[in-house]
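re: ur question from yesterday

yeah so i grabbed the chain u mentioned. its 196 aa long if i counted rite. heres the sequnce exactly as i have it in my notes:
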Amino acid sequence: MLTRTFDILAAFGGLLLLSPLFALVAFAIKLDSRGPIFYRAPRIGKDGVPFRLYKFRSMVADAHRRGPGITAASDSRITRVGRFLRRAKLDELPQLLNVFKGDMGLVGPRPEDSRYVALYTPEQRRVLAARPGITSPASLHYRNESILLSGDDWERVYVETVMPHKLAIELAYLSHRSFGTDLKVIFLTLWAVVTH
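ran it thru and got these structure tokens back, copy pasting raw so excuse formatting
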């Protein structure tokens, strides 16, 4: 209850505080390429329930028809403004809307595309018992994940190496998670954004 109350208040405050930045980013996206400002990515949430994850659009409007749900470092679908948004992690800010709605929390396992959730082992599926989050220990560890996903076999690298390691980190965190450890993850995330 404490975590959810904190999530709602923080998401509302964040949306209010960042509204001028949202307007600026929206203007830059519209100036750079045709298409909507937001991208609503299909993801799997708590208890395996699908939801739409909000992001600032960083790719061409029909990117979902041109390639996979995971984006490699050299993906030609990324727009000029999109490259900056991704590097600065600004494309993730609209997920505060998901937090406010209750689809997500500030901290929790990162929500995954259904095609990759289908590959989870029974043990890995335990992450679905938690509400997904904007940040997590695994997302901090793999902050520059797209750099690892290069070359022709990038998806195999993701499925066989990156994804299992991320899920192991998430499960280890969930086994000793508390409100205090969530606050620490939020602080480390903000620090990483400011210093990189």
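noticed a couple things. Residues 12 and 100 are 7 Å apart (CA to CA). also DSSP finds ten helices and four strands in the chain.
anyway ttyl
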